[in-house]
Amino acid sequence: MLGKKDFFLEMEYIHMFESLANKLTVSRIILIPAILLLLVIPHGWAAWLALILFAAAGATDWLDGYMARRENQVTAIGQFLDPIADKLLVVAVLLLLVFNQQISGISIFPALVILLREVAVSGLREFLAGLQVSVPVSRLAKWKTTIQMLALGFLIVGRYAPASIPATAIGDLGLWAAAAITLITAWDYWRASIKHF
């Protein structure tokens, strides 16, 4: 039988996942395997469907934060899951695009920079959370995310885009721009946190 404290903790846990914002975050994580599965199917229809699901996942990234603030439903689980969902989506898609050679040659370098930054910033945030220090996301970091998502979208359809749209070239250019901003924002995070070491 549950004690009173355990009962209230369980009810709080259930309530965390009742908020629309948290459901949107979880849906983003659930979409990742479907996107990856579509990326390994070498057909145009699969690439375009992957792009649609990727765009939907990207939209939930904006929407879950908006809903949480509007409905005053910011929860600890939401603050924990949201950045994890973002990083899982970006890292998984980057790895699959490199595997498929939709990102190839020298363009693997900005993909690697983005990947390493995601891992480093996650570790840094975890360290700072242990010290109860919050590092807010900067406006530049939000621009980086937007450019990165657009670049990945172009690269997903890459070779299956209409001949009049140089999707791979646009995606590669966006990836380089995102990587440049990634280095700047990584330095900003490091500078803000160095005093806590």
How would you describe what is shown here?
Helix content is 78%, strand content 0%. The protein has 197 residues and is an all-alpha fold. The chain has a single domain, classed as Up-down Bundle (Four Helix Bundle (Hemerythrin (Met), subunit A)), CATH 1.20.120. It is globular, with a radius of gyration of 19 Å. Mean pLDDT is 81; it is low at 7-14.
Q: What does the average pLDDT come to? A: 81
CATH architectural name: Up-down Bundle
Q: Which fold does the CATH topology refer to?
A: Four Helix Bundle (Hemerythrin (Met), subunit A)
Structural class: mainly alpha
Shape: globular
* Total strands: 0
Tell me the Rg in angstroms: 19 Å
- The fraction of residues in strands falls at under 5%
Helix content: over 70%
- Helix and strand pattern: HHHHHHH
CATH class: Mainly Alpha
Largest sheet: none
Overall number of structural domains: 1
Q: CATH homologous superfamily, by name? A: CDP-alcohol phosphotransferase transmembrane (TM) domain
Keywords:
197 residues, mainly alpha, Four Helix Bundle (Hemerythrin (Met), subunit A), 7 helices, 78% helix, globular
Summarize the SSE layout with pairings.
Layout: H1 4-16, H2 20-39, H3 44-70, H4 76-99, H5 108-130, H6 139-157, H7 167-193
Helix pairs in contact: 2-3, 2-4, 3-4, 3-6, 4-5, 4-6, 5-7, 6-7
Short description:
The protein has helices spanning 4-16, 20-39, 44-70, 76-99, 108-130, 139-157, 167-193. The protein has 197 residues and is an all-alpha fold. The chain has a single domain, classed as Four Helix Bundle (Hemerythrin (Met), subunit A) (Up-down Bundle).
